Amino acid sequence: MNFNATLIGQIISFAVFAWFCTKFIWPVIIKALDDRQAKIADGLAAAEKGQHELQLAEKRATEILREGKEKSKEFIDQAQKRHDEIVDGAKDDAHEEGQRILTAARAEIEQDRQEAKETLRAEVSVLAIAGAEQILMREVDKNAHNEVLDKISASL
Amino acid sequence: MATEGLTSTSYVRHHLQNLVYGELPEGYERADGSVLEQSTWTIAHSTQEAVDMGFWALNVDSMGWSIFLGLIFCYFFRKVAKNIDSGVPGKLQNVIEVLVEFVNTNVKETFHGKSNPVIASVALTLFCWIFLMNLMDLVPVDVLPFLAQKISGDPHFYFKVVPTTDPNITFGFSLTVFAMIIFYSVKVKGIGGFIGELTLQPFGKWMIPFNLLLEGVALLAKPVSLALRLFGNLYAGELIFMLIAMLGYYQLPLHFIWAVFHILIIVLQAFIFMMLTIVYLSMAHESH
């Protein structure tokens, strides 16, 4: 264990290396580490914020969905109402139309009946005369009995 | 390495001798019997020559490895620092960041003074550099000296590869730390405060000489214990590797076991050196 100038050499080299480390290595690496720490902290904060916003958005989405449902229900109710109205109106219209057609048909029938009555009247008088002719076995004077015949056919 | 006529004593001794470069005086008788005609700067060929070179000689091997490993540390850390990405880190950046984070956490937990980036970066330098130096202990004991002998062509070439088994290196660290302790003590507490701390406690002003003795020993014990702890652990570890290396073929499993055990020691010693440095500097920043 003998000491020599190596001791001084080592002190100088230690001083130089320590100076180099203090000047060019330590601050650079520490700064990078701090930067990364800040970055990670920012990232985490942003993630948290994002999550919070997500929650808010979810809440809002639920709200909108609920509103939409309510609105659609309202629409459906309205539509139902309108539907009922339309159906009722149609029913009324149809009823009226039916009445109208019925009335027309009745009038037509009445007219036909009148016509048939007229025809029958004429034919009955002819038949009555023919019948009376057959019964009496003689010629009946149409003109002499026209008054009677008209009375018969009018009473039909 | 196994050369003829090698005894275990000479093997161990050879391994424990640094490669020393220094000046031998005029008329000095070299290890091979030749006498120098004038004072010469040369490499020591024996332990006695290394001692006779006096203080102004250099342990070329430990100094060289120390600087080389320091440069490796600087190279890798600077490389990462240059291309650092605060987004997704690369693999090397990850490793470096783990180390920096580790040191930073320890400094934050242990250092109670005003936050000072110098302390942390000195701690990082100490931890990484000492770890790399200690790591050289896991290179099989004979490999690098053998290569050095082959390259230099001298079968007696001294070559010690673990810088922390050289007390010059460990004291180089601890004396710098000691200088920092005194610098920060004076800076934070003023010269008066520092002297007061050394003399006026623990027993008050009537016991100044006794206080000075106690506190002085406590202060001086810091660098000495720092350096000797690291040196002693690594020196002993290296010695055991050498002893195992002399066992013949049985050495292989033993080498493995001791190396596994040693992994713990090299990290632990680097960590302890770093932590104690932080603690001492923290104490220098606090007034009692």
Which spans of chain B have pLDDT < 50 for at least 5 consecutive residues? none
Class inferred from helices and paired strands of chain B: mainly alpha
- Helicity of chain A, in percent? over 70%
Q: How many helical elements of chain B?
A: 9
Q: How would you sum up the major sheet of chain A? A: none
Classify the secondary structure makeup of chain A into a structural class: mainly alpha
How does the overall form of chain B come out from the CA principal axes? globular
Strand percentage of chain A lies at under 5%
Query: What percent of the residues of chain B sit in helical stretches (DSSP H or I)?
Result: 55-70%
Largest chain-chain contact? A-B, 31 and 50 residues
Structure description:
The complex is a heterodimer of chains A (156) and B (288). Helices cover 93% and strands 0% of the residues of chain A. Chain A is mostly helical and 156 residues long. The radius of gyration of chain A is 60 Å and the shape is rod-shaped. Chain B is mostly helical and 288 residues long. A 3-stranded antiparallel sheet of chain B has the order 2-1-3. In chain B, α4 (91-110) packs across α5 (117-135), α5 runs antiparallel to α9 and α7 (167-199) packs parallel to α9. The A-B interface holds A 1-11, 13-15, 17-18, 20-22, 24-30, 32-33, 35-36, 39 and B 18, 20, 22, 50-51, 53-59, 62-63, 66-67, 70, 73-74, 77-78, 80-82, 84-87, 96-97, 100-101, 104, 117-118, 120-122, 124-125, 129, 166-169, 171-173, 175-176.
Q: Could you write a compact summary of the structure shown?
A:
The complex is a heterodimer of chains A (156) and B (288). With 156 residues, chain A is mostly helical.
Question: What secondary-structure arrangement, pairings included, does this model have?
Answer:
The complex is a heterodimer of chains A (156) and B (288).
Chain A: H1 6-136, H2 142-155
Helix pairs in contact in A: 1-2
Chain B: H1 8-16, E1 20-24, E2 40-43, H2 47-52, E3 58-59, H3 60-82, H4 91-110, H5 117-135, H6 143-152, H7 167-199, H8 208-245, H9 251-285
Antiparallel strand pairs in B: 1-2, 1-3
